[in-house]
Amino acid sequence: METLSTSVAFGGVQGVYRHASAATGTAMTFSVFVPEHEPDEHLPIVWYLSGLTCTHANVTEKGEFRAACARHRLIFVAPDTSPRGDDVSDDPAGAYDFGLGAGFYVDATRPPFDRHYRMWRYVTEELPTLVADHFPVDRTRQSIMGHSMGGHGALTIGLTFPDRFRAVSAFAPIVAPGIVPWGRKALAGYLGDDTAAWRRHDTVALIEDGARLPELLVDQGEADANLAEQLRPDLLADACRAVGIDLMLRRHPGYDHSYYFISTFMAEQLRWHADRLG
Amino acid sequence: METLSTSVAFGGVQGVYRHASAATGTAMTFSVFVPEHEPDEHLPIVWYLSGLTCTHANVTEKGEFRAACARHRLIFVAPDTSPRGDDVSDDPAGAYDFGLGAGFYVDATRPPFDRHYRMWRYVTEELPTLVADHFPVDRTRQSIMGHSMGGHGALTIGLTFPDRFRAVSAFAPIVAPGIVPWGRKALAGYLGDDTAAWRRHDTVALIEDGARLPELLVDQGEADANLAEQLRPDLLADACRAVGIDLMLRRHPGYDHSYYFISTFMAEQLRWHADRLG
Predict the structure, then answer these.
(1) Burial class of A164 by CB neighbour count within 10 A (0 to 12, 13 to 18, 19+)
(2) pLDDT mean for each 10 residues of chain B (278 residues)
(3) What is the pTM of this model?
(4) What is the span of the domain harbouring residue A105?
């Protein structure tokens, strides 16, 4: 693992790191914030998955998470959203919503994307091991959150590993990719046309198929331009209600899809996580 | 004045605006955060001047000022750091420390820079009038802060208009541009070789020549790569001590020159401003 940069911030260290990923077959960059802590202390870890077009850098620079992470003594990890590199296949038309910057946290099975797009394995297996090897992490206390496509990642991963994460939340997540345009394009492109294979990567379908968490927290801006077509929190609310998942869906008038929205509610989400991480 | 974007954030509105500037003869872009407030309320205003290479966007995205501005009900304005445009002269070699992104908050007198580089007039006269015309500002309650080159701007403007600003502070400011390489290049380039003309744009020289403020707050990272050669807070400390200006110079071990440093201490500086803005 190579250290690209470190800066002291809010008493801790904000770093950016790179490593050769076996999962993606590429170099992968990610950021980690480690708050001030005692020499032998191991801290809870919050995973943050980013949205379309983002790298680790967006939340690292604009997310305003460090003050809360320092206060609650949480490690905060932000992976990239796709493999990167000259030999990594991209959307044929160069669109923002597929390929580079748009890995959708799945392991692609469809050529040519199956060669590098293994973000599920990367985020759920390889990176957790790497982070645990290099940072003072208490792996028994993990939680996960994300934004938009990354909210989709956080919810699907949280529902798949309910014993791993003590808290699961999202900002403006894509909750039904099997139904909405962003999701249908991505799942078809990475997984092919067999929609049965999509259900493991669709929050609403996972819940319908029996996945359970005791509770979820979702913040959603009501002025989000993607709300009605791509995000559909109503579908998540229906699915949770049907099976008794305690969804706290907070709708915020006036807020859009940007980091101005995320940063506003970041401290509250992290406090909610901290309460559950002990 | 044209609105380029607005987003709701921390209960207020973060906007980016553009207007045709008479001072610079160019279009100028700036950002304003207006916190939630009563319909007829006029709020104190904090001016934030940015450093080399920056536009309004750096602090707007990375400064983490909105939570504190919402809490203390402060309007926060971030101008650009130079005129921009195809016909605006730049550093002949394209260097980062002169020309575009490096206006140093002076009115240039030396051709060709005297044509557009009138940042002093822009920041002290034109933009305050424009902002007061369009936002719910209480002009009797203003303060100013800045970073690096913008710290230089904040300190020189604050010392020149002691009755206008109730608080003046800086992050890692250039305090003696007449002595340090960044400053000597800029002042010679914009004002010519007559170093007597530089003293109005040099914090230490202004204090030596009689300018006074009751107090100053400066945060400085001790791991700042520019500390010893370009910033020289020791010279500011000496100048303030000699004339009885109450300088609170806070040196922070480990912190560098980046927005990771600025964002860490932004809330504390804004609370200090709020205490003085009433």
Answers:
(1) middle
(2) 98 98 98 97 98 98 98 98 97 96 98 98 98 98 98 98 98 98 98 97 98 98 98 98 98 98 98 97
(3) 0.97
(4) 2-277
